[in-house]
Each structure stands twice: as structure tokens, then as C-alpha cells.
Amino acid sequence: MTPTRDMMPAELAALLHFYAEAGVDWLVEDEAVDRVAEFAEQRARGPRASAAASPASQAAPAQAAPEGRARPTAERPAPRPAAVVPAPAIPDEHAVTEARFAAESARSLAELRTALEAFGGCNLKTSARSTIFANGDPASGIMVIGPMPSGDDDREGAAFFGRAGLLLDRMLAAIGLSRDGVMITTVMPWRPPGDRSPSQPEAAICRPFIERQIELAEPKTVLLLGNFTARFFFGETGTIHALRGQWRDIAGGNHAVPAIATLHPQELLTAPASKALAWQDLLAFKARLEQR
Fold first, then answer.
1. pLDDT digit string (tens) for 164-208?
2. Which DSSP string corresponds to 98-159?
3. By C-alpha distance, which of 83, 197, 184, 79 is closest to 136?
4. Does position 87 have pLDDT exceeding 60, yes or no?
5. What CA–CA distance (Å, rounded) separates 91 from 217?
6. Which one has a higher pLDDT value, 178 or 67?
7. Residues 11-16: contacts with CB within 8 Å, 24+ apart?
8. Going edge to edge, which strands form the sheet with 183-186?
9. How many Å separate Cα 66 from the centre of its chain?
């Protein structure tokens, strides 16, 4: 778990909100209590002191307790309300409209990055360290899109770092490509807390930005990685094993862009036996590139 001293302000705010929602409203006593000294004092008084500490005596008024001891629970004042951190609003239709307007107003990838970094209508942004945007060479005409940033991506500020990123580099190298020679991005620009799957409202708020990235980058072919990504663009609910290996057109602004889906590198790390399926998809992707 990340120590609180290493957390960003937004992460601390989200943590406080989580505790408040869980019902935590009392973190420490009003006054410090030396329990070691208290125990030593009771031992020094002997058995009679233990009898005096019986439940009946503990029910005595608080003013009878020695100074410096914690007051009985019955006499404790009402807990002070914890600092309330406003809950980030879940994206709604109004936020989707704002996202669409911000995305469509951008006339270049640089403008779109600025608009995305300034956008505050998605609750995922409050707990993420980085905003992930497309990196690479737009002139290549090749785009690789993953689902959502991982913890490594969030720390580094770019898509596909860590073990999954290294495997993706090897996958691309196997068909004569490199990370710097393509455009790489993710559907969701912000990492969901705990690496959970994004909700439908969260996906809806981010859709205008990823679709605008595709439109401005103008790729000729797209490689989709993972279950969430394939469902997002194909509009279906099947698993990646049912959706992979098939060329389909996805939205690319004023024209459709051919895309093929395959397994995410992280899935291949978990189930190495599936690498044979991914290799078939990569060969199909390479063949399509050679036809251009």
C-alpha cells in the first residue's frame, strides 16, 4: 500500500472520502493516553485496585477518573464530523456533452492533449496520477490501443510500461514494428482505482476523446488489445476469444478504419498458452500492413 506521505493531494482526498463513506469518523483520542504507565499504575495498586476497576466502578462519573486517563465511553463527547471531501461526480449526459465539445474543438493532437488534461468531468481523474495520451509516430498510419492504464502506466505517464509493456515491445518486434514507429494509447486516459473495469458512464465520458485521437492521428490500421477494448469499439459483449482475429471497421472521424483485436499482453503473461492465438492475429495484422 502506498504510504500517505507519498500520495498526491487528489489521492489523499479520495482516501478520506472512502473512509468517510465507510463510516469512519473517529481516528484518534482527543488526548494522548499512556497505556503503559496506566497498566504499571494498576499493578502497583495491587488486587484492591483491580477490584476497584470492576465494571461497577468503571460506571462512575467521568470526573472521578484520574487526570490524564481516557474518559469512559458513555461520557465521551459526540464525535466531531470528519472533514468532508466532496465526492467526485459520476459522469452523466451533461458531462458527456462537455467531453464531446472539448474533443471536437481540438484541431490537432497537441490541442486534444491539452483539452484532455484540462478536462475535469470524469471522476477517474481524481484518483489517477497521470493522464495517458497517444505517443509515437502519427505518420506511421498504425495505431495500437489498449484498455485502461496500469499502475506502471500511471506512474510513468505513458501507455504500456512494466512487464506487459515489455511483452508488447517483443510482439511488435516480431512483425517488424517498434514502439516508436507506431502510435500507442489507451481507451481510458485515467487508471481506475484498484485496476477495476471502467463503468459504463466512465467509458461514455472518455469515448469522445479516444475517437478524436483516432480521427486526428488518421491511422490506416488499428490493433486493439484486450477484452474491454474489443467490446468498446465493436459494440459487442463477447469475450476476446470470440472477437479476436476478425477485421472490422471502427469509427475514425469521417471515415472507417479497419481494426483487428487480439489478446492483451497481460493476458498472455497470465495464460502463456494463448500466445499462439495472439501470434496468428499479429501475422494477420502484418499481412494487412503489407497490402497497403
1. 999 999 999 999 999 999 999 999 999 999 999 999 999 999 999
2. HHHHHHHH--SHHHHHHHHHH----GGGGT-S-----EE-GGG-EEEEESS--HHHHHHTSS
3. 184
4. no
5. 26
6. 178
7. 11/127, 11/129, 13/85, 13/126, 14/85, 14/88, 14/126, 14/127, 14/193, 16/82, 16/83, 16/85
8. 135-136, 183-186, 142-146, 221-225, 255-262, 248-252
9. 50
3-state helix, strand, coil in the chain (%, to 5): 50, 10, 40
Helices 93-105/109-118 angle, 10° precision:
150
**Cell numbers found for residue 291:** 497490402
Residue type present at position 276: A
C-alpha–C-alpha distance, residues 94 and 178, integer Å: 40
Helix (H) or strand (E) holding 165: helix 162-174
| Domains of the chain, start order | 93-290 (3.40.470.10)
DSSP, res 245: T
Q: How many CB atoms lie within 10 A of CB 127?
A: 21
Residue 117 and residue 162 in contact, taking contact as beta carbons nearer than 8 Å: no
Question: 259 is written with which cell numbers?
Answer: 481494426
* Cα gap 206→215, rounded to integer Å: 15
